[in-house]
Every structure is written in C-alpha cells, then in structure tokens.
Specification:
The complex is a heterodimer of chains A (116) and B (110).
Chain A lengths: L4 E3 L2 E4 L5 E6 L6 E7 L5 E8 L2 E4 L8 E5 L5 E5 L8 E8 L10 E2 L3 E5 L1
Parallel strand pairs in A: 2-11
Antiparallel strand pairs in A: 1-3, 3-8, 4-5, 4-9, 5-6, 7-8, 9-10, 9-11
Chain B lengths: L4 E3 L2 E5 L4 E6 L6 E7 L5 E8 L4 E4 L2 E6 L4 E6 L8 E8 L5 E3 L3 E6 L1
Parallel strand pairs in B: 2-11
Antiparallel strand pairs in B: 1-3, 3-8, 4-5, 4-9, 6-7, 7-8, 9-10, 9-11
The chains are: A mainly beta (116), B mainly beta (110).
C-alpha cells in the first residue's frame, strides 16, 4: 500500500519568503507528526496531531511556524518569513495513534528545505 | 535536549561482522524503539521493546533494554552492505511523542 507522501521533495527559497510543506499520511492513520532534521543530526520534534487537533505543539521553534491538518488526513507545515537557520529536512510521520503508544511511526522521505 | 544519546556516533565494519550500538536516555520510558535511516530517505521502524522487557529479537537484530541503567543496545549480526545506514533510538514516555537520539552512522564494507 501507499506510504507517507511528502511534497515537495526539495524546496529552495530566498530568506524572508513563506513556504508550505505538505504531508499525506497513510490512510487510516489518525496520528501525524512533524520533525526537523539538521544535517547529520537526530530528529527534533515539532508538532503532533491526533485527528485534526494538535494536542502537542511544544516543538514549534517560533511563531513563524504553524501547522494544520484537515479532514483527519493531509497536513501542511507553514514557515513564514524564512530564515537561514530554517534550512533542514522536514520529516512527516504517521501512525495508527492508538492510546497504547505501541504503534510504530511510518515516515515519509522528507522535504529538504534550503534557505538562500 | 535529546532524550537518547547513541554511542558510538560512527561505526565501520567488514561485511559479516557484528555491529553493536548503544543508546542512553534520561527519564522513565514506556517503550524504546530503534529506527534505520538510509541516506536521503525517511526513517524505517526496526523494533520496539517495552519497558518491562529485557531482550527482543527480530531476524538478525537483537535489542536489549536495561531500565536500571537507562540504556539499550542494538546488535546487528552477520552484517551486510545493505545494513549501511544511520540507526536511531527513540524513547516514548507519557503521551504520544517519540524523542530521538542523534544516531549512529554504520558503514558496512563489502
């Protein structure tokens, strides 16, 4: 079956521009996560969705970052007034989101964002 | 700061050898998971071990968990060139969030 799909795969933009990253999770997965990965580093948690609501936004680094999820499916991560330090790979993951916490997360291949 | 820290940061071995990497964490956990990431790709879930388990096997993978020492190890036996990747541990405490370590880069030379 189809996995987690992210678009675009690469995005190059000028400092100060807004960018929108898209994540299409596995069908039926109610939980969706956004992470950021800097070159050669681990993953930094950004935000978690359960359905359309975001019970944990604790990882968003500033108010320039926002995310939404509609219809319990597709999610978009928006970065306003981009800065060079926003350059990273943005990864999306989804899981069944059952309350037992035992569901593995399934990742997309990420969007590589470069801010010039 | 990251919950999990992997050791070593990088590992180079010959095909057929075993690869062992360790993960230490700081707070109480519900479970610990290991993921693999090939270059330029997303992470792939390998194995999950619950906090009340001490050892788990999956194919050529063996994971141990010592909650008293807040540490876990991942052993890959009889490594193959295709095992070349970065390996991350991730811990789950309360809630649904996973906290990832910085990863171990493994190079398996043919």
């Amino acid at each position: 079956g189809a996995g987690v799909s992210q678009s675009p795969s690469n995005k190059v933009t000028e400092k100060g521009k807004d960018v929108e990253l898209r994540c299409d999770p596995i069908s039926g997965h109610t939980a969706l996560y956004w992470y950021r990965q800097s070159l050669g580093q681990g993953l930094e948690f950004l935000i978690y969705f359960q359905g359309n609501s975001a019970p944990d936004k604790s990882g968003l680094p500033s108010d320039r970052f926002s995310a939404e999820r509609t219809g319990g499916s597709v999610s978009t991560l928006t970065i306003q007034r981009t800065q060079q330090e926003d350059s990273a790979v943005y990864l999306c993951a989804s899981s069944l989101g059952r309350g037992d916490g035992l569901q593995p997360q399934h990742f997309g291949d990420g969007t590589r964002l470069s801010i010039l | 700061s990251q919950q999990g820290e992997e050791d070593p940061q990088a590992l180079s071995i010959q095909e057929g050898e075993n690869a062992t990497m360790n993960c230490s964490y700081k707070t109480s956990i519900n479970n610990l998971q290991w993921y693999r990431q090939n270059s330029g790709r997303g992470l792939v879930h390998l194995i999950l071990i619950r906090s009340n388990e001490r050892e788990k096997h999956s194919g050529r993978l063996r994971v141990t968990l010592d909650t008293s020492k807040k540490s876990s190890s991942l052993l890959i036996t009889a490594s193959r060139a295709a095992d070349t990747a970065s390996y991350f541990c991730a811990t789950k405490a309360a809630g649904n969030k996973l906290t990832f370590g910085g990863g171990t880069r493994v190079l398996v030379k043919p």
